[in-house]
Amino acid sequence: MQRPLYLDYAATTPMDTRVREAMWSYLTLDGEFGNPSSIHAYGSAAMHAVDIARMQVAQLIGATPQEIIWTSGATEANNLALKGSAYFYQSKKKHIITVKTEHKSVLDPCYALAEQGFRVEMLTPQKNGLIPLQDLMMSICDDTLLVSIMHVNNELGVIQDIHQIGALTRKMGILLHVDAAQSAGRVPIDVKAMNIDLLSLSAHKMYGPKGMGALYVRRKPRVRLTPLMHGGGQEHGLRPGTLPTHQIVGMGVAAEIALQALPEEMPRLARLRDELWQQLKVIPGIDLNTDFAHAAANYLNVSIADVDGEALLHALPGLALSMGSACTSAQYTPSHVLKAIGVSDALAMSTLRMTIGRFTSEDEILSASMAIKNAVLHLRQDRL
Ligand code: PMP
Q1: Contact between residue 113 and residue 86 where contact means Cβ atoms under 8 Å apart
Q2: How far is CA 13 from each of CA 31, 104, 172, 183, 188, rounded to the nearest angstrom?
Q3: Where in the chain is the domain with CATH 3.40.640.10?
Q4: 77 close to ligand 1 (CB < 6 Angstrom)
């Protein structure tokens, strides 16, 4: 049986075969399987590979290798950034600002911190998902410790103006954390030019392995974090545990490929995304939730009036796509992101998030749009 056409690159990306090839050599006896912390030859060979990957990931975001801390993914990086900075600086400041449309791995640590006595403020974005700088400025006070704002939103694709936000937070002496799980490799990032203090990355969103990520922690001037785990002292004691060499190598190669592919990949994806929208926009009652002028090129989020979203998904067995985000779709509750930008519950329930990527072809775009148009037509006819 033919597998459904994959339009869910924001949920995860297939690994690039070049990444898999690089990872093979760090697993078995004939490869560099050593513990990177060991002092013998096996250890130093593995550590050499880790060092190269650290440089590759650093280059993707304009950081230095010493500023990269390996984690198990962006969820862990977000937790370490938020809780680690909150705990370290809590005797000085206790106010944290974030946004209602953040990923759960930012929102939930913030709720946990609120229960521990931190004051958490959630900003509401405007209709296109952007946070007006004015709103951020108004919420900053003497007690503000940290601002956490994602770069590219995982449902809408909207890109926050981190340059502007970073200039403000740096001027005010406030830490800026950016969840870049969806932007790394898709949108240029320069942590220095953007004045970012902490930045979370995930390998499986950029054609690397699942269960791997990193946190950028600025060195000059130094950002301090309280570790969440204690153990063997790896990663400057910030994230102890034996380094998973093959995973790290995979993330490094994925980062290198992403950086090199970015200039060509983005215009190609924007063309395919535009084509998909041109095909779909003729559907009566279709609404575009992605503001193309401010969005990553691989996103198309639409709401379709007068069809049941669950029925629509079931009517599209040939397409792998998402309603709202993958993390909330199991619950069939309207997405918190769509609610925050003012989409009604009814429309939010009939929303399709289509995300394309490196292996999406023009033929796939045409098949997908045809399938969606037919499904909507049939569902509406059935109701008559
Ligand atoms: N942040 C964002 C914006 C995401 O899209 C995701 C993945 N859904 C995460 C964080 C979590 O990343 P990971 O799967 O690496 O823990």
Answers
A1: yes
A2: 26, 20, 37, 13, 18
A3: 17-257
A4: no
CA of 377 to the centre of ligand 1 (A): 34
The CATH number fitting domain 17-257, selected from 3.30.230.10, 3.40.640.10, 1.25.40.10, 1.10.357.10: 3.40.640.10
Displacement of CA 163 from its chain's centroid (Å): 18
Q: Which residue has the tokens 């093979």?
A: 24
Residue 158 phi/psi, 5-degree rounding, is: -65, 140
Indicate if 110 belongs to the active site. Answer: no
Q: From the CA of 10, give the closest atom in ligand 1.
A: 5
pLDDT in tens, 111-131: 999 999 999 999 999 999 999
Domain topology for 5-12+264-383: Aspartate Aminotransferase, domain 1 (3.90.1150)
CATH 3.90.1150.10 range(s) for the chain read 5-12+264-383
**Positive or negative: CA dihedral 317, 322, 328, 332:** negative
Return the closest-CA partner of residue 311 out of 336, 331, 332: 332
pLDDT digits (tens, 9 = 90+) for 233-271: 999 999 999 999 999 999 999 999 999 999 999 999 999
CA of 376 to the centre of ligand 1 (A): 30
Pick the catalytic residue: 55, 228, 327, 371? 327
**Which residues 6+ apart lie within 8 Å of 295 measured at CB?**
152, 156, 157, 158, 159
Element (H, E) at 96: strand 95-99
Look at the pTM and tell me if it is higher than 0.90: yes
Percent share of the chain, pLDDT over 70: 98
Q: Is 351 in the pocket of ligand 1 (CB under 6 A)?
A: no
The dihedrals phi and psi of 325, each to the nearest 5 degrees, come to -110, 155
Instruction: Report the separation in Å between the CA atom of 113 and the middle of ligand 1, taken as the mean of its atom positions.
Output: 19
Q: How many CB atoms lie within 10 A of CB 271?
A: 13
